[in-house]
Amino acid sequence: MGHLAGRRITVIGAGIGGLTAAIALARRGAEVTILERSAELAEIGAGIQLSPNGMRVIDALGLGDAVRAASLPSRAVELYDQWARPVIRLDFRARRPDADFRVIHRARLIECLARAAGQAGVTLKLGQPAGAIPADGLVIGADGLHSLTRQALNGREVPFFTGHTAWRAVIPDPGTGPTTARLYMAPGRHLVSYRLGDGLRNIVAVMERRDWQDEGWSQPGDPQALREAFAAIGGAVPGWLKRVETAHLWGLFRHEVARIWQDGRIALVGDAAHPTLPFLAQGGVMAIEDAWTVAGCLDAEADVPTALARYQALREPRCRRIVAAANANARNYHLSGARRLVGHHALRCIGRLAPDLMPSRFDWLYDHDPTNETP
Ligand SMILES: Cc1cc2nc3c(=O)[nH]c(=O)nc-3n(C[C@H](O)[C@H](O)[C@H](O)COP(=O)(O)OP(=O)(O)OC[C@H]3O[C@@H](n4cnc5c(N)ncnc54)[C@H](O)[C@@H]3O)c2cc1C
């Protein structure tokens, strides 16, 4: 046993980051209590992609079988233009056959994590909004975008609208077997879809929009407005959108990556530290990586301030790089005019002549193994 044995820790927030952190801490002997403001662990109906860097943590926590049983393997990401003509296929699995890219319904992921947290002896207190940071003891702030914990460390910051809105919907899809994420790029918008398993298909449709006035960041989205906004995209898309009965529309807000992640007693994980645009599918995965690393650092080092400083030093550069790469994708997916013609032509040539080149540009992201890092 390391330095976490018997240590009392409060985690604020029972999202992907908070639950994973609680499991990682409790598995190393800590006595963990999670305070979650919602009365139940309800997740929106939507999918999430889990890349190998996150799956390595899932495996190290002993959750691999449960998560695999609840998810589908994903073979590749295929990019199309708005007329559904292939642009490039990113075959990440061909490059690393042992690596596990998966897609899962968010509710199923949360179920797996919550069950494992219970088995690890974590106390989950639902309907308990933390109105202030607990006055003593170690605190992990996993309280998402509007994080109270982040505010305690960094002062008051107002999240800014990124200029993007996202519709999310799931539709019935009876297909079976491994899935492929298809991404359709059009000027100022893109749409991603993949089969989720359980007879469902996930749709995320992102549009640039400067005029978002709403203070909140989610509201019911009119399926007809979704169909109209993406009417210019062809191929399978009109058929999918016709089947949308319920959609949610999100204004994508975020902060910059936090300057201060910890103060020697309180530490941030997940969106609380580094909310990102979802254009690299890494927000949840970064939270999972953070969770592993913060637990590893606290277990390896007796002095908590030293351990938390090490945690920030290990995580901040990587998270900054991921957030920047997701921002770059926002620009690349939404090109218009001549830049789009040139960009898509270049990608088609690369895909034909050097199919491994584009997937290799993500080695730094997907080959990372937090469980091999020295805390
Ligand atoms: C359209 C879209 C698609 C995405 N797709 C992907 C993807 O494919 N792959 C991926 O990895 N990521 C994806 N993400 C990002 C991912 O959803 C987030 O990064 C992830 O959910 C962050 O997890 P978290 O635990 O840090 O925060 P959250 O999920 O926001 O959880 C925070 C929790 O804290 C609770 N809380 C807040 N304040 C308090 C308080 N004061 N007291 C008690 N509890 C509190 C909240 O109720 C919540 O349960 C996507 C995001 C969007 C918007």
Secondary structure layout plus pairing:
Elements: E1 8-12, H1 16-27, E2 31-35, E3 47-50, H2 52-60, H3 64-69, E4 71-81, E5 86-90, H4 92-95, E6 102-105, H5 106-119, E7 123-125, E8 138-141, H6 148-154, E9 160-172, E10 179-186, E11 189-197, E12 200-208, E13 218-221, H7 223-229, H8 237-242, E14 247-254, E15 266-268, H9 283-300, H10 304-333, H11 337-353, H12 357-360, H13 363-366
Parallel strand pairs: 1-2, 1-8, 2-7, 4-10, 8-15
Antiparallel strand pairs: 3-6, 4-5, 4-6, 9-12, 9-14, 10-11, 11-12, 13-14
Helix pairs in contact: 1-5, 1-9, 2-9, 9-10
The chain binds flavin-adenine dinucleotide.
Residues 12-18, 35-38, 48-49, 129-130, 142-144, 148, 166, 168, 204, 250, 270-272, 278, 281-285, 287 line the site of flavin-adenine dinucleotide.
Helix content: 25-40%
Instruction: Tell me the fraction of residues in β-strands, as a range.
Output: 25-35%
Name of the top-level CATH class:
Alpha Beta
Count of distinct strands: 15
Helices, by number, come to 13
The name CATH uses for the topology is FAD/NAD(P)-binding domain
- What is the domain tally? 1
Largest sheet: 10 strands, mixed
Backbone shape: globular
Give a list of the ligands: flavin-adenine dinucleotide
The value of Rg in angstroms is 20 Å
Note the run of SSEs as H and E. Answer: EHEEHHEEHEHEEHEEEEEHHEEHHHHH
Oligomer: single chain
Poorly predicted regions are: none
CATH H-level superfamily title: FAD/NAD(P)-binding domain
Q: What is the CATH architecture descriptor?
A: 3-Layer(bba) Sandwich
